Amino acid sequence: xAIKRICKxxxxxxxxxxxxxxxxxxxxxxxxxxxxxxxxxxxxxxAGLAANQIGLDLRLAVIKIQRxxxxxxxxxxxxxxxxxxxxxxxxxxxxxxxxxxxxxxxxAAKVKVRALNEKGLPIEINAEGLFAxxxxxxxxxxxxxxxVSRLPxxxxxxxxxxxxxxxxxxxxxxxxKMKPM
Length: 181
Ligand SMILES: [Zn+2]
Description:
Elements lengths: L22 H4 L3 H14 L4 E3 L9 E6 L7 E14 L2 E7 L2 E10 L2 E7 L5 E7 H14 L10 H18 L11
Bound molecules: zinc ion.
């Protein structure tokens, strides 16, 4: 297992729609890849990580939700599709590709997602709250959409100077040099 460097805002791979996974083609490498993705996400305390955040053009992501006093909920989604969305929430969101930046983003409060799991089996996920937010955030990544592009135009413009400053610092952060927790 290895911690991978996480791609930061401004890197092209984050703005590209990821290629659909042919499960048979990646089946052999998948366990090692997923182990690396979970390790990378855990090292920085993230709730989700999409494959393109470590530079891979693959339509898959890992999610780990930690609720107080509960076992963490870990999930792999491959080729996820949004089946249903309802309600609305407006909560702070962050992203491992924008370390330390948080912004309030409007999301559906409840979602139903269909995907393949790590065994290549179809799964249907019903999620709400934090879990629904993580699913929408990671699925956006796979479409090349980052959370700041979900902000209204005015907020985006206001954020721009700060983003530019942070971008230069983020470039220097290399998670692969971190020690595993
Ligand atoms: Zn993100």
